[in-house]
Amino acid sequence: MSVALIEREPRSGDGISSRNSGVIHAGMYYPQSSLKTKFCVEGNKLLYEYAELKNISHRKIGKYIIASQPSELKRLKDIYDQGILNGVELKFCSKQKINSIYPKLKTEGAIFSPQTGIIDVPELITSLEGDIQHHGGVISLNTEFIGATKKEGIFEVKCNDGNTFNIKSKNLINSAGISSETVSESIEALAKKHILSIRYAKGHYYKYTGEHPFTSLVYPISDEFTSGLHVGFDVSGQIRFGPSLSWVDNIDFTFDESLKEYFIRSIQKYWPDLNPDKLHPDYVGIRPKIQNINEQMKDFSILHAKDHGVSGLVNIQGIESPGITSCLSIGRYVTDLIIKN
Questions:
Q1: pTM over 0.90
Q2: Which of 26, 127, 154, 257 minimizes the number of CB atoms within 10 Å of its CB?
Q3: pLDDT digit string, tens, across residues 99-144
Q4: For the chain, which domains are there?
Q5: Which CA distances in Å does 304 have to 13, 37, 107, 138, 166?
């Protein structure tokens, strides 16, 4: 099959794919039967293998999920139990053990995930682009998807790269991320009842330029809405904290520096020695949520003809964390759907 990738931005991944923590997740947070668990656990192995094969910068530095209060220990145990059920390699750390590893942190217990790591996402995207082009695919940047109609089993996809033109295709995959709702609405054959509303969850990251005790990723206990202000790294060793969570009505990547006090309070709950003067604005990302505010995280949505009745269409929505980790596994899954179709 030949592939044409239509990308509205001047470079691939410029929306949400390159505006996240760059973490290779292990898959302990999600229900066992969910697509998030399936694709994350599979994708973790596939992504490490791919990164090695393609010499993409990455580091398997591990992650500690920490409880800073005795009241958080039950939630910690629940995450551990879920992870073991999902087939994730985890180690439970006592208060004494985690305090010996991180004596400067306020901890009551922890879980260690040795298979969690970090990856240079722009390098990953560049490598995937190279794969598409090497195998005869076409990538059209600065090209907006206008709409699609279906006639006699063929999609006519209307695009605009400064000039309007059509592409004819047997299959159509909507993987537009934060714009997936808009694209879904522009596919004439897709009924509205199969289109999910996307809500924008804006997340800020602050970088830290001073000395710090961290040698691995460190995540505080999360709630059902967010993974909390965790300690992240890029592949050069620079640490950052985030993401925060605020619901917004528009796609806007401007940085709100008034959040600094919130970051300071949140981080000092587990790292009291944080120096606020060393905390600086870094970047902003927006997650495409398919759940309402104060609603628990929902699973990835990958609908095909069996779900919506449109042969040849795979409609993908709600790909947030662990989307980067899951990308190769999702790719295999969608390929199988296309082949079976």
A1: yes
A2: 257
A3: 999 999 999 999 999 999 999 999 999 999 999 999 999 999 999 9
A4: 1-59+121-191+314-341 (3.50.50.60)
A5: 24, 20, 45, 23, 23
